[in-house]
Amino acid sequence: MYIPYTSTLIRQQTLHHAGLSAFIIITLLGSLGRPQITQTVEISYQEVFQKQQFPIAEIMNASTSHTFFATAYSSDFFQTDATPFIPANGIDYRNMMKKQGYVAAIATNDLPLGTQIAIPVQELPDLFTQSTQIPSERIILDDKKTEVILFTVTDRMNAKFTGKSRIDIYVAISLEDGTIDQRSSRSVARLFGSKRLTAAIVQFN
Length: 205
Known about the structure:
Blueprint: E1 9-18, E2 21-29, E3 35-44, H1 45-50, E4 65-73, H2 93-100, E5 105-107, E6 116-120, H3 126-132, E7 137-141, E8 144-155, E9 166-170, H4 182-192, E10 195-203
Parallel strand pairs: 4-9, 5-8
Antiparallel strand pairs: 1-2, 2-3, 4-10, 5-9, 6-8, 6-10, 7-8
């Protein structure tokens, strides 16, 4: 999960939910990002929404394509928080990689968690599509069949990117044993750079 660049912050992680409540771990982090105080509390979903660290922008129209400014990131300590493999929706990228051999995930503040975004393969660098081994699909996009990769919104970005059509594509390169190669993933993310691309929002959670 992304964190704002402040010396002291509150990190929230949902452990599990029951009815209209959720059990949250709240950790006070120091200037070096090390946990100082941790406690578990029960909080209502309404309170969770009100206390969100990253505000969600107005929801985009799901029936049209959009132009995004895209960058890429990996599970690097300097790009994430103290739990680099666990995004805002609480899944574990390491388990996902071992289970299916790839991770197709995106961080953005402008869409609900769980939203699927279809990015045409031609919009993505060859190095990314080849190294991440994410399977592509053919869907009808702009009235024609298009080869796309379906990504799911799983994480949030720094609050300053809210409402700016920013997406950050997660990069995970698999080793032979099914674990994530952090060094290679970081290299591919850096080589991805930044670019504008057109993508379609195909599903809201």
